[in-house]
């Protein structure tokens, strides 16, 4: 996304505070929490590959109340992504006019934050390019004891192959998969990369910051998940720098998580 750099000390200070505060309430906090979970897992007597981490687990013992909790969690992710989009559209340095809403008379499909049908195919191709090697990497890491078993709880039951799930489990998990993609790609790629470039941070450091942040909040699954997501982060930032489009990344991420979560129910714990 094109963005003019911050030109005054006040603008740069505001951007630094924005980065600190947004990350503190979104994926920065998630990364710190995940790192502590990894330390906790490594301190346990059993090997990492003998442990299981559960995704999308029940949040209430009352089956009729659990969907409300699940929807709130999904809503929080959507709010994180919405906050990043709002900040990019509204709260930008005065010099960063290209980030403002599309002026009247300008074709709306050109706006970099507006989804379009042309984003779907690149998203599907990115999902295949990242998802298939990612699954192989997860299975190899599990074999080497570098990853926990990742289980999307309740999916087996929702698909008719196991106990403990409900009819609403699968649609809520798919909704959460796409909320993850929406939040992560808008915050970790579009917003963070734009803000860092406005602070004149070299692209090399932008790549590193975005990729390491993505890897950090997956560490609860094991160190291999951190490494795998760093690689994914590098590819996604490369795509964003090359095209200026974030929606193909959202499509790719949503598809990857959907297949991983549903695959966990169909095939057993295979990834996430």
UniProtKB/TrEMBL annotation:
Annotated keywords: Hydrolase, Membrane, Metalloprotease, Protease, Transmembrane, Transmembrane helix
Regions crossing the membrane: 68-89, 120-140, 223-240, 247-267
One GO biological process term: CAAX-box protein maturation
One Pfam match: Rce1-like
Ranges of residues in domain CAAX prenyl protease 2/Lysostaphin resistance protein A-like: 168-258
InterPro entries given in the database record: Rce1/LyrA-like_dom
Highest taxon in the source lineage: Bacteria
Recorded coiled-coil stretches: none
GO molecular function, one term: metallopeptidase activity
Signal sequence annotation: none
Name of the molecule in the record: CPBP family intramembrane metalloprotease
Source organism (scientific name): Corynebacterium heidelbergense
């Amino acid at each position: 996304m094109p963005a003019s750099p911050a030109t005054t000390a006040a603008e740069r200070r505001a951007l630094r505070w924005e980065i600190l505060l947004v990350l503190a309430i979104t994926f920065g906090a998630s990364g710190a929490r995940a790192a502590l979970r990894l330390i906790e897992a490594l301190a346990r007597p059993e090997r990492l590959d003998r442990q299981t981490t559960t995704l999308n687990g029940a949040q209430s013992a009352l089956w009729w109340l659990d969907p409300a909790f699940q929807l709130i969690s999904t809503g929080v992710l959507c709010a994180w992504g919405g906050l990043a989009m709002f900040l990019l559209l509204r709260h930008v340095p005065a010099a960063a006019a290209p980030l403002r809403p599309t002026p009247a008379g300008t074709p709306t499909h050109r706006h970099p934050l507006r989804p379009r049908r042309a984003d779907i195919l690149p998203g599907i191709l990115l999902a295949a390019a990242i998802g298939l090697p990612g699954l192989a990497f997860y299975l190899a890491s599990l074999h080497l004891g570098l990853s926990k078993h990742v289980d999307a709880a309740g999916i087996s039951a929702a698909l008719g192959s196991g106990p403990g799930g409900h009819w609403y489990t699968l649609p809520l998990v798919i909704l959460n998969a796409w909320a993850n993609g929406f939040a992560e790609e808008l915050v970790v790629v579009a917003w963070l990369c734009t803000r860092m470039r406005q602070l004149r941070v070299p692209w090399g450091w932008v790549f590193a910051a975005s990729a390491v942040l993505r890897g950090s909040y997956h560490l609860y699954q094991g160190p291999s998940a951190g490494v795998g997501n760093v690689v994914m982060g590098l590819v996604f930032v490369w795509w964003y720098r090359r095209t200026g489009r974030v929606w193909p990344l959202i499509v790719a991420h949503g598809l990857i998580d959907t297949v991983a979560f549903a695959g966990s129910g169909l095939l057993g714990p295979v990834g996430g």
